[in-house]
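Hi all, posting the design record for the shared folder.

TITLE: backbone redesign
STEP: 1 of 1
STRUCTURE INPUT:
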């Protein structure tokens, strides 16, 4: 992830941290977007194009002539070769290794704005999904009942844990978790769904319960869950199949992208609403 690369490089090199502080109108990135500019490389992005090129040049000038934080306003019109028509306020802040604790705290606070994701099952789709989510600010808790199923290296935002039986983990999930169920066994999937619905019955704090599979799989599960005493309104809380509609293909990577896109649609934070450039800025 860009964040990890930035913090690693900052341990030995100075940089200028460029952030979108505010914006108005149509812009390529929202408030909170950032990039870090080093002497010979840059990490992250504030939207690309001529805006980013000018920002990198300004940051490198500040690297050679250190000063305190400063802000600059950029109009995204013909002078920048961009036709967005909006306006961006960028902050340029020189940073060094001494700023690492503060930056880590900042990134942790930003990540905390995103809802937690819980993933049940360590198969091919789950492994592909973890790699996609590794580039997003979600905090991912990954469970499986089998030993030795998780890869040796995981993205920094993913925590893997063995749970036997796997549905036992449902009771300890963080409130507001988005749950994705894709174990190696239909029996396990059914037990996890049932555990999630029981938690919903008592606490109602799992806003998304997604189950991988076909409509025929869900028809079978629905029948068995009714036999376990769940009502139609409770079953309606489960999404199956998962993934945004209209994406064809059954390759694990394709399904992973479709599911990640669905998670992004589920009320992820919009930082741009927190800060806008006023008309007289």
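Okay, here is what came back for every position:
SEQUENCE:
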């Amino acid at each position: 992830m860009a964040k990890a690369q930035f913090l690693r490089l900052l341990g030995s090199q100075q940089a200028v941290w460029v952030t979108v502080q505010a914006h108005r109108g149509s812009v390529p990135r929202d408030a909170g977007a950032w990039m870090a500019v080093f002497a010979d490389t840059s990490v992250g992005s504030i939207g690309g194009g001529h805006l980013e090129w000018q920002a990198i040049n300004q940051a490198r000038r500040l690297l050679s002539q250190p000063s305190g934080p400063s802000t600059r306003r950029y109009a995204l019109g013909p002078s920048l070769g961009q036709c967005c028509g909006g306006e961006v306020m960028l902050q340029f802040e020189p940073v060094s290794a001494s700023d690492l604790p503060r930056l880590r705290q900042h990134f942790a606070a930003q990540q905390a704005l995103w809802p937690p994701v819980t993933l049940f099952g360590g198969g091919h789709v789950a492994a592909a999904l973890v790699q996609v989510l590794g580039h997003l600010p979600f905090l991912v808790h990954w469970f499986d009942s089998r030993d030795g199923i998780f890869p040796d290296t995981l993205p920094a935002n993913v925590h893997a844990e063995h749970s036997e039986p796997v549905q036992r983990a449902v009771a300890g999930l963080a409130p507001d978790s988005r749950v994705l169920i894709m174990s190696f066994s239909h029996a396990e999937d059914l037990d996890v769904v049932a555990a999630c619905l029981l938690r919903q019955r008592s606490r109602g704090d799992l806003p998304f319960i997604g189950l991988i599979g076909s409509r025929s799989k869900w028809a079978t599960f629905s029948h068995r869950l009714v036999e376990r005493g769940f009502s139609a309104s409770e079953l309606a809380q489960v999404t199956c199949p998962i993934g945004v509609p209209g994406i064809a293909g059954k390759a694990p990577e394709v399904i992973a992208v479709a599911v990640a896109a669905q998670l992004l649609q589920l009320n992820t934070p919009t930082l741009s609403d927190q800060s806008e450039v006023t008309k007289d800025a």
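COMMENT: The two ends are 34 Å apart (CA to CA).
Let me know if anyone wants the other runs.
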